[in-house]
Amino acid sequence: MQVREIMVRPVVVVREDASLEEVARTMLERGIGCAPVVDAYGKMCGIITESDFAARERGFPFSTFRWPQVFGQWLPREGVEHIYQAARTLKARDIMTSDVVTVTGADPIEDVVRLMLQHGIHRIPVVRDGVPEGMVTRRQLLRLLLPPESQSDTVTNPGCWHAMAPG
Questions:
Q1: What angle do CA 155, 163, 161 make, to 5 degrees?
Q2: What are phi and psi of 59, to 5 degrees?
Q3: DSSP run (H or E) holding 109
Q4: What domains sit in the chain, N to C, each tagged with a CATH number?
Q5: 125: closest CA among 165, 161, 82?
Q6: Average pLDDT taken over every residue of the chain
Q7: pTM given for the model
């Protein structure tokens, strides 16, 4: 079985110059956990996931001490709201992951499973000539357990994924 048989399409994308407020609004309104980031030509240049909006522990340089950071800023014990308010003006390119794991529609599903395990990720964009054309998530892998007649919404899922044309 090939990736194109289970991928969700079309895929929601965001422009690299979109503000984080726009990205967050898009993800919340569309009910999605990630969005490929595209340049002015529609080519994929990164990806933003819900995890990029959450705090992560980072080590202090030359120390074993760890403290949470969000949007590249150390979190204070109180008052995290101002960091999120200030981040509204950041652009997608400022927090996106640039080194994105992708597959093509012709790749076998086994590649998706292997890549998810190898990289510890839950979603993989499907690209053709560098342009996002679909998405495979763990949810699509769950659908493989269902009989074929129950998988009618595998390819398109209008409640969750809608194309946003770049430009």
A1: 50
A2: -80, 145
A3: helix 109-119
A4: 3-55+69-150 (3.10.580.10)
A5: 161
A6: 81
A7: 0.75
